[in-house]
Amino acid sequence: MIEKKIYYGWVIVIALWLIYFLNMGFPLYGGIIINSYMLKEIAMSRSTYGLSYTFLNLCIGVFAVLIGWTITKWGLKITFVISTIILLIGTILTNFITQPWHFVVVFGVIIGTGIGFGTIMPIQTGIVSWFKVYRGRAMGIVLTAAGVGGFIGAPLVQKIMAANDGNWRAGWNIISILIVVSGAIAVILIKNHPSDVDQMMDGISDDKELANTGRSKLNAKLITSYEWTYSEVVKTKEFWLIVFSGNANLFPFFFFTAHWILHVKDLGISPAAAALCMGIFSGVSIFGRLFAGVLLDKYSANYVWIGGLLFYIAAIITTFSITSPPMAYLAAGLFGYAFGHTFNCQATIMGNYFGVKAYAKSMGLFTMITSTICSSAGIIGGKIFDITNSYNGAFYIILVITSISIVALYFTKIPVKDQSA
Question: Which domains does the chain possess?
Answer without folding.
Answer: 9-410 (1.20.1250.20)
